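Weekly structure sync, notes
Attendees: PL (lead), two postdocs, one rotation student
Agenda item 3: pending single-chain targets
PL asked that the sequence for the first pending target be pasted directly into the notes so everyone works from the same version. It is reproduced below exactly as submitted, 468 residues in total.
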Amino acid sequence: MGDGSSGSVDRTERHRVVVIGSGFGGLFGAQALKRAHCDVTLISRTTNHLFQPLLYQVATGILSMGEIAPATREILKHQANADVLLGEVTDIDLDARTITSQAAPGPLVTGYDSLIVAAGAGQSYFGNDQFAEFAPGMKTIDDALELRGRIFGSFELAERASDPADVRRFLTFVVVGAGPTGVEMAGQIAELCFRALKRDFRHIDTTSARIVLLDAAPAVLAPFGEKLSQDAEKILTGAGVEVILGAKVVGVDADGVTYETADGAQTHIPAACKVWAAGVAASPLGALLAERSGAEVDRAGRVLVEPDLTLPGHPDVFVVGDMMALDDLPGVAQVAIQGGRHAAATIRSRIDSKPAPGDFEYHDKGSMATITRFKAVASVGRIRTAGFIAWVLWLIVHLMYIVGFKSRLTTLINWSVSFLGRDRSERTTSAQQVVARNRLRRESGDQPIWPGAVGEGISSASGGAPPE
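Predicted structure, written out during the meeting:
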């Protein structure tokens, strides 16, 4: 990849770094090697870098996918030592130091001297993968676009329904998981029902909608602490969200959701639109690395790494972000960003024959979740706040981490339209968005057809949750 001038790079006997994944860990790791005496090859199954924390805003019509998912190739176009390859990694040979990736017209083998594996995580249904057909997760752009179609489509179907029971089912939205993603999604669906769409329909009253947030845990946003958890629940209920805690989901089908409480009682909620925001499972590449190296994985499929983020027995391989397990660190963007940069710093020190930075030290920059317009919760250092101040902090921090000036500008404009007015600028949906995921899965024998392939689709050899 060129730098906008000659486009030529001397690649003779330079250290070869391969980065798997274009998420926070992979992208920030690649960028941190910009001035290093090495060649960087970033391999990803998508063509974009995804700002995953804002997926729910794509799903609820606030932002377009381009604002949170700029092209990786565009981001790295001025980094002369970086190549970007589209492909799904299906094999890692630790002895030969090679990566095999799949895309049309066929497999490609790429050699490496250092490897950063940052393939991210997919949605976990805790062994109930059949739920996925009726309750999409929130991990990819495809998920967000499908949910946009399901959410806005529910209002349209309610508008034309004549049976009151059908109207109630179409106007009932169930979100499973009371972590940041679930809380933010439930809050924004409430904004749609009670504010943004209430003047748009003639035969239904969107303010009569029922928004239910379910979680088996005893608290909303439990990692934020008791005070902010209570504040978040109060904001949610004030916005019209019905919060049901201690509720384990035991059934999801086309008609609705069934949950079970501690006393064994089961309750069924008829609902056409369901969102799954509970649980993550690391990329299948974690299991592959464990099998090849003898390393251990935790229950979520994350690789137990050495303190410097290297794969046990393989100091040339770094595992970062949602794929690595170390000191109970959370699967959040900052862990991935700092991990990618730490891996890059270690690689640079080896290339320059300097002392390595040593063990990875995570610096917690806090946690935030926005619930409705002007209301959020934030835990930053010693600051614990809820309401408007927390919302402003959330606004500033998330705007900072969106990649690119153009994306920041358009995001700010769309936020102004959505938060100050009533409109949602991204409400266009298509039937294809709603049905494509399940249709592809059925037609390809439960193996995801590799996206973007020209001609016949290429099935993933790794299966399971897709890496970033």
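Discussion points:
- The CA atoms of residues 237 and 427 lie 25 Å apart.
- The chain has two domains: 15-124+281-351, 129-277.
Action: rotation student to compare against the earlier draft before next sync.
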